[in-house]
# Entry
Amino acid sequence: MNNSAINNYLPHEVEVVERVQETPSIFTLKMQFTDQKIQQEYRFLPGQFNMMYLYGVGEVPISIVSDPQDDNLLEHTIRDVGRVTHGLSQLKAGDRLGVRGPYGRGWPLSVAEGKDVILVTGGLGCAPLVSVINYVVRRRELFERLVILQGVKHSDDLIWREQYEKWQELPNTQVMVAASETAKPGWPWYSGHVTNLLDKAVFNTDNAIAMMCGPEPMMLAAIEPLRLQGMMEENIWLSMERNMQCAVGHCGHCQFGEKFVCKQGPVFPYSEIKELFGVKGF
Amino acid sequence: MQKKILTKTHFNDFIRLLRNQGYDVVGPQVKDDAIVYDKLNNSEQFPIGVHDDQTPGSYSLLKTDETSWFSWANGPQALKPLVFSPQEKLWSATKDEQNKLSFVENISESSPIAVIGVRACDLSALAIQDKHFLESDFRDPYYESRRENLLLIAINCSHPAQTCFCVAADTGPEAKTGFDLVLTELAESFLISAGTVRGDELLQQLNLETATEENLSLAKQQADHAREIQTRVIPEVKSLKNLVNQLEHSQWDEIAKRCLSCGNCTAVCPSCFCHSEKDQPVLDGSQTDHVRLWDSCFNQQHSYIHGIVIRAETKTRYRQWLTHKFSTWFDQYGQSGCVGCGRCISWCPVGIDVTEELAVICE
# Structure
């Protein structure tokens, strides 16, 4: 869709097919373009995002969580946190909204084939990385070890809990979940910061790729132990968030040093952004 | 390209020719105590005998008995609003009875515009905006439709302001490229020559005399003078590129004590491209317009993400602006984002002078 001959600013109509309430503040919209041709031609990579448009309110960038080979539905898992996302949270099956995309660079999933995959996420329902977990699990034979590290503040924040339990039953897969602030009695996983668990992750540093998503201090804390274990900075990938209004590198809001996060990211290898990563004000 | 002579007494024939060719003619004139670019019907509207006095934090005009039309440097705006509109509708959405949505794009279909009196600094800034809006990964159809409509008639600068530093920025005072026609003001006439085929075709229709050696010599003297009177300098490119390694310099705190974070510098900067988008629904909800407006990295909301403002302090906003304009712009577009027009110095309400701040930070 990002052909230069067309207007990249113009959304296309989609219809909500199903709405799922994941937690009190997180919901998933499963949608279809109402124009069948657009639906059939739509292609994306996990890690890319769409601009979702709510009639009369505005646009917001949201990561795509559906499987790239699912031609039927486009899925977005969204946290009700701002003006537009609150409006989106009120939608139900049959409602219409606008979508344009996909935008940005996705996760390096073809590069990751044949490698150990370490996925580190922090925060509530880290959608950009959940799409990777699902992608790898569905194509398990293409990858070596799978290590999933998920951090939440409170044990109640963990969404898709049954899935984590299911994933840890998979062969050659390690799942570690951490609750940093409060863990209810019966919490079967770790109490503390998820980054403390990196020492326990078992993988071959020479043939591994790490992908992470979450608050920047968490990602910064996770990068150090990975580097100490011998991982190259270009094999540590992370997803950045910045204000995005145009998604095509024009509006200027997402600039991170010389990078336009919307088009050069949102996924970057740490080596490309390390000079400014964690610097206040960028 | 051969230089011809267009006398001031025949200048209205030139304006008439442009209008007959379907152009809306825009040119500099005095409005609200400043030089602004607006619709021009005849040459009497030019700022005849007007000089501008620009110093840090100050812009004023002085009317004299002189007969020159272009004895001033610049005003707050020139080309930017003509191609990158301060506010424009990108598209409209409508909702029918079944709640189905339709989207209609809104590409402006304005008539061609001929701009007379474009400065070299502003042509350089336009080339920078072309790189951003047209030659980057995505083409902007809104900018493109306006840009294609422009006929550019440059005027070599003979009276740089005290705030100007186009020589240091290597963009002026003479227009070298990017124009259809270029003028040099002499006493009673203009030297005129073409920079494009389109410009040359217009020139042919004017039936003008060829310039004399004396005319050319006077033009050269004026250009030399315009170069020599400029005193402001900027650090060399190597030092500018190194700005991103000066993020902890104490001068950022010093600037933040003076900077009001008002965004005037970004509004008058001819290369600043930041804009925001918003929806403007009509009251009955049947239609909503999606518009974009100029924005500034000095606004609090510019760096907002889900409850967090990344640049909450003035210090980090000024640092963002300066490091982008003079340093990371090289990584993005292979050149500085500053053309040396000096507007950010004149129009800063507290008179912050980028050239002075750069000298301290890059020393």
Notes: The first strand of chain B starts at residue 4 and ends at 7.
